[in-house]
Amino acid sequence: MFLKKLLKIFCLSLPLIYLVPINGQLVSGPMIGYVEHRTAKIWCESKPGAEIQLFYWPADSIKSRSKAYRSIQNNLGFQTFTFDLVGLEPGIAYQYEIQDQKKKSIPGGSGTFSTQTLWKWRIPSPDFSFLAGSCYYGNETAYDRPGKPYGAESNIFQSMAQEESYFMLWLGDNYYTREADYYSEWGLWDRASNSRANPKLQPLLKKMGHVGTWDDHDFGPNNEGVAFPLREESREVFTSYFPNPGAGYRGEGIYTKLTYYDADLFLLDNRTWRSSDSMRDSIDGKPNPEKKMIGSQQMEWLKNALLNSYQPFKIIINGSQSLNQHSNKDCWMHYPVEINELLEFIQIHQIRGVIFLSGDKHNSEIIKLDRAGTYPLYDITLSSLTAGSSKLNAAELANPQRVNQILLKKTTMVKFPFRVQPKIESLKWK
Ligand SMILES: [Fe+2]
Question: pLDDT value at position 7?
């Protein structure tokens, strides 16, 4: 069934113009969050102090109008709202409207969404598609590195907003903090806010649901992990801009699991507990158990969550690549004790239907990991949305794990798992 679902991936690189307030009250949004059978989340950012409410109703019955529960994240001059819409019915279209304190509609603050169909025990899982991507760099000349802007145009978001997909999966580096941003809590908020406020992004935020995990640049400085002193503050900022239904455990981390029809999505947090990339993979010829990417607490959760998943498709989402044995840096394979522990667990327990998704690399490819006596694992890497493409060394360019040797650097839209458009011929999924 998964082959019937179109995972639409965009790897276009185009210029970026933004930072104009959307209207009098909203800074960005509304953005649809996670929508399941009977609840939904809708997010927006307002000017500080703005008093707004959200109302919703079945598209065919405005008489059944309800007021959403509201939570406010307010800090250092930034104010975001997460609205919880409850008591919904499965498989129904809804409308919503954001109002100001005078009970007037806020321009641009209304839209529609549909809940997931209650299919289990009733009908085959409905087909659905989703978008996925990573590495969104918004240019701000005063704080960017000198020279050619690192971020490209963001017209890709306008193209994505034309797609009839159920949700967008953000694979990390969903905004890029820089020197001017990641040395202060305010800077982390400011970068998330000004990236999200890009006018070209707004139609996509309203068109479909949005969920995601982070990587280094929306967590903090390049390659940062457990040593980042503002990691708690960064978590607060991220969860204020990505209202996933869960975020780690007891106030730590952002990992969580989501379900869309017959696919479970396991969003990993590859930063909160991450050892330095500079720590040696092995010492005296033995893999180094001290080097971890996701940490023991999260590993315990992931193993048990995989075992408890009864969906045929189990998608493990990691901001970093997971299965590339020929990567010269920043891949879970450089944390050999931990990744081998997971791979052995999947093999021993004969867990079916596992697929990896990843971002970060500034190019896109499918990595295949053959396994003795069972199905191969794939790691589908999708990058980048607007950030520049990266240069690969000779070993990576000739990577024998790359499916069909298709390496995408930019300006390409991929429809997975079957077609790469417009220049590359059929990509066969086995
Ligand atoms: Fe990254």
Answer: 52
